[in-house]
Amino acid sequence: MKHISVLVPEGELVVSSLVGPVKVFGWVDQVLADQGRPPAFTVELVGPAPSEQYGGLFSIRPHHAPRDASRTDLILIPAFLGEVEQHVRRNGELVAWIKEQREKGAEVGSFCTGAFLLAATGLVSGKRCTTHWMFAERFRHAYPDVDLQVERIVTDENGIYTSGGAYSFLNLVLHLVEKFCGRAFALQAAKVFEIQIDRSSQTAFMVFQGLKTHGDQAILSVQHAMESRYDAPLRMDQLAADHAMSPRTFARRFKEATGCTPLEYLQRLRMEVAKKRMEEGDTVNEAMFASGYGDEKAFRSVFRRITGMAPTRYRARYGRTTDLELVF
User: Of the four listed, 34, 109, 245, 307, which is most buried by Cβ atoms within 10 Å?
Assistant: First the structure.
């Protein structure tokens, strides 16, 4: 039987990322009990103190404080809301406890922005990790030694697990059910809880914003020029000359500042425009021309590479008009 400790850190939490694992692992144990078999999991909450969430709407009472939880097999870190870095600083006791348990052989997983607390332990230095795509820039700035693969839904490396944003924590839970109990249990859980199993990429959900906190004013000016002229033919050598740089210096500085080559940056800008146009009801061809592409084959190739799906599939899935406007 595997002992699982779901952490209750101090700070604002995504409560569903605590309840979800308890519910799914509890369901596995119930199925086993119905078959006359022993449970696969014992799930307990570990935190320094009772926690009030969503303005007191929910109260969470951990089973144990870290100092009283001497041994566990798997630690799961929930997602934070609000100022993630501030929450991490408040939870030094849990950081130390996670490191101590890892030294004793425990595995560790994080959901969404819980990756910040995981990274604070140093356990993912030089390793693969994912988190919510909206926090990628902040994560890279805080933990540059981590191999952040933000396009991934789930990572699994030597007993360290992470999941992408929001409710994709359920995909990591299914991954763990399959790893510990087998594929049949994971498939059955996916059907019972109506979770899409085997999702591997969060690229279709990403909104490209472009890294702009790098401090290189010349490159920032180039970014603004690209954003205002994305639908026109843009020559990178001309952009370099316009900003008094050689093409080689321009390419190097742009990559260092944004993490993308100039061409990759322009392609991502254009794909973001195409996505929004299709979401608003444009046809694929209308979105293609609006985003600055005239070559259908090139457009479809770049779109699939960046979003992980064909434009027609993207439009079929997300192409509905809405009165809601997302503000980031």
Answer: 109
